[in-house]
Specification:
This protein has 241 residues and is α/β, with parallel strands linked by helices. It contains six helices and nine strands, in the order E-H-E-H-E-E-H-H-E-E-E-H-E-H-E. Bound molecules: 6-phosphogluconic acid.
């Protein structure tokens, strides 16, 4: 059975360093070949260290467009907003030009925000043969239940490989209302980087990197080619030898 690439680092800081190094390299490669880059940032708390490191690895952000893999339906100024976290740890310190930062317009409400984000993605990104927008990089965190972005176990969207992004109104991880890239859009990306640390994620890491594709563990449904898991020793502690 094909498996994703798994990199195990000693500590969370080492994992953040490794993730930032991957992101900087992929961004540089994409910009050299296409002149511009489209990156979907991960939400949650884990990516904060990586974003802070990334500021020091890239000194020219020209042409780098930052999107969001998912967003909670909260105001952009809310500390629960994924954009708020990225703005403080990456976007502001790196002085990424406003025109290159594409936040989900949560003020539109769930359905309108999904439609708006879908239209903007379709307009800005190249598309694959299935008509899906192609990111250069989608960065993801991993939930203890194996969720990625806002695609949770048992979600009907786990069977949907065509929706560019989807609206979730029953997320088990608060807040319940979220906008998420669809699984097909995540899989269409050139690179997927899943960064997770800590013993609490060890059970999920084992299922999603060593188990068969299983909608009870959504990250296990990601295509293995082009997917890199960067984890620390604690998150790797349940892996079968
Ligand atoms: C969100 C995230 C979500 C997150 C995981 C891990 O909006 O909550 O997109 O998918 O990445 O739940 O979160 P932590 O990194 O905080 O553990």
């Amino acid at each position: 059975m094909d498996r994703p690439t798994l990199e195990i680092l000693n500590t969370p800081h080492d994992a953040a360093d490794a993730a930032a190094t991957h992101l900087a390299r992929w961004i540089d490669e994409a910009r050299r070949t296409a002149g511009q880059v489209h990156v979907a940032l991960a939400g949650g708390l884990t990516p904060r260290d990586t974003y802070r490191r990334l500021v020091g690895l890239i000194d020219d952000w020209q042409g780098v467009h930052l999107w969001f893999g998912d967003e909670r339906l909260v105001p952009a100024t809310d500390h629960d907003s994924n954009a708020w976290m990225a703005r403080g740890s990456l976007i502001a310190p790196a002085a990424v030009p406003d025109g290159q930062v594409h936040e989900v317009r949560t003020e539109l409400g769930l359905a309108e925000a999904v439609a708006d984000y879908t239209a903007r993605l379709r307009s800005a990104l190249p598309e694959d043969d299935a008509g899906r927008p192609v990111f250069d990089v989608v960065m993801l965190g991993l939930g203890e239940d194996g969720h990625v972005a806002s695609l949770f176990p048992g979600s009907p969207y786990l069977d949907d490989r065509l929706s560019v992004c989807v609206g979730v109104d029953d997320a088990p991880k608060p807040p319940p209302e979220r906008i998420s890239l669809g699984l097909g859009t995540i899989d269409a990306a050139r690179h997927r980087l899943v960064l997770t640390v800590g013993a609490a994620k060890a059970h999920a890491v084992r299922h999603v990197t060593q188990g068969a594709p299983d909608p009870r563990w959504p990250a296990s449904l990601l295509q293995t080619r082009g997917t890199v898991y960067v984890v620390d020793e604690a998150a790797a502690s349940s892996l079968a030898a």
